Amino acid sequence: MNLDRLFRPKTVAVYGGKWSDYVVEQCDKLGFPGELWRVHPTREGCFRSAAELPDAPDSAFLGINRALTVQEFSALRERGLGGAVVFAAGFGEETDGADWARKLDAAAGELPFIGPNCYGFANFFDRVALWPDQVTGMPVERGIAFIGQSGTISITVMEQHRSLPVGYVLTVGNQQRLTAEDLIRYCAEDERVSAIGLYLEGILDVPKFVEAVDHARTKGKPLALVKAGRSQQAQTAALTHTGALTGSDELHDALFKRLGIARCDTLSALVETLKLLHCFGPLPSNRVLVLGASGGDMAMVSDAASGFDLDFSPFPEAEHDTLRATVGERVRLRNPFDIQTATWFDYPKLREMFRLLLRCDYGITAFMVDPQDDTLADTASFDRAIDTLLEVAPQSPGHAALLSSLPESLSKTTREKCLQAGVVPLQGLAEALQALHHSANIQTVWDNWSPPKLYPPVPDEVPIRTLNEAEAKELLVKHGFLVPQGRVVAAEDAPDAAAELGFPVVVKVVVPELLHKTECGGVALNLSSRQQVAEAVSGMSGLAERFLVEEMITDGVAELLLGVSVDPQFGPTLTLGAGGIFTELLRDAVALLLPLAEKEVRCALQNLRVAALLAGWRGQPQGDIDALVETVLHLANFVEIHADRLAGCDLNPVVMRPQGKGVVVVDALVRLR
Description:
Blueprint: H1 4-7, E1 11-16, H2 18-30, E2 35-39, E3 59-63, H3 66-79, E4 84-86, H4 98-108, E5 113-114, E6 121-123, E7 128-130, E8 143-148, H5 151-159, E9 166-171, H6 180-189, E10 193-200, H7 206-218, E11 223-227, H8 232-242, H9 249-259, E12 262-263, H10 267-280, E13 288-292, H11 295-304, H12 320-327, E14 337-338, H13 342-345, H14 347-357, E15 364-368, H15 380-392, E16 400-404, H16 412-420, E17 424-427, H17 429-447, E18 465-466, H18 469-477, E19 486-490, H19 494-501, E20 505-509, E21 523-527, H20 530-539, E22 546-551, E23 558-567, E24 571-578, H21 583-586, E25 589-592, H22 598-606, H23 611-614, H24 625-642, E26 646-656, E27 663-665, E28 668-672
Parallel strand pairs: 1-2, 1-3, 3-4, 4-5, 8-9, 8-10, 10-11, 11-12, 13-14, 13-15, 15-16, 16-17
Antiparallel strand pairs: 6-7, 6-9, 18-28, 19-22, 20-21, 20-22, 23-24, 23-26, 24-25, 26-27, 26-28
């Protein structure tokens, strides 16, 4: 589908009244070089209908109600329209909108359109804005593309006072025809686009989204986004706003991490991340140098960076003597680097210091400074120090940034000077550090590219069978899992089975319908005699006729949960976390997408709070981490083999034994369609 006529039109038809007046004004403001035709049934100087237009328009803004939108879209399609912006609401996001959505599809035929319920687009590359509001950006030759599911948030990005060059602002509304995935692909193909930013409330087609992001990666276009839906309130607001289902936030998080998409919590962090990506693309490494003339600033940097994957490596030993000559004997050579004030005013030495630091192979070198307001104070000393950096940076091999702790400290003049010199102006310490973290991580993911493979969930109408625990374990053993030795027996045979296995033992009822046997008295642990086994079975006689007698695993270092859930969007996915009876209480788990590699499993384990237990806590033995990793990979393989019929799986607890003794699945629930 060719979208150039829609987004890079030479002729535009604008339908509607007051809202559409803005569209005409913004096109005039940007200096749109093409032809613009107003369509209104009663206004003077306007065409009355599509039939009166002098030619088929490339693009149309339909700022009219839903009934007229359907009517006029159909007429424009017959004239040879290239594409449209559907401004009207009242389609998929409304309770009575499904029929209108079908009518809209029929009217459009195969034509591309954005919306309905969307604000349109602004194209600052080609000076055209089908946008029913004020446009505050300026024409650019190169810039980021922003794709938004909110008109207001798109306006905010457009109006930011952070000197982020914006080339496209594209809103999607309900995504009835063109989705965010389509627009990612389109923007990735445009050589003028440096990076792609998104505000999303929901992803309609996750496999299509993965393919679009992969395509953008091949074109060297990194992505950063804000995704709504972390809270229940946000999920409700998104559903009301555009009819979007936000989906599982944990799975979206896992998806974005796997694809190297920078997920930002705030628009300010998003803008700073996009600005950094615009200037340099993904950083070559997470090795960062921050310097400034304040010990307090450097202490703040150290504290604020503790939550990010940033490496403040020391200076290369080979550069120490040269560096010492520029900063003096009293300055400590450490990173973050407090240069104090003597070098600040010795501009030849300051210039040499910048030149030296920018060749030290850091992913980026950031000069931290918060100039005073130039309307209230003399900023000459700040300006000269900044200008010294800007003189050196273009001739240096390393990336350079000017970093302010407060966003408002860098004036527009300073920001624009930085951009012209190839130095990125980063505003706000927290946002800047998040941007650095994301940018380096994107490169790491690209270097180790392994996109997720998503299996379609089995249709709900296929009935589910829950295996009893013995059946589940028998199936798991065939896939390489270790389970306790056990027997399924009648009540009268349980004491003999226990004696054959050796005490202590565990006795459980064999009833697939009981998903949580512990809560209903269906489990007896640590039984050390025939009499105790007989008494336990007698106490459970009302729950089941057959019982699972197993050896008791007594040397566990930690209990974990390995689970498989089948999500409507993502299909089967894995959960790895703290297990046992405190699973719900601790809520210490991570979501994992298939396929899995050993490195990903080890990284996930390190991110769990129970990681300290696995490594040996307070003198306890270290767990068999290698065996745990192998068990997780067994589960991933199990899921891939049975993806066409797996409805869920819960291995809890999985007992990690001391190093060299393996990992045992103590309880298992498997549901198959």
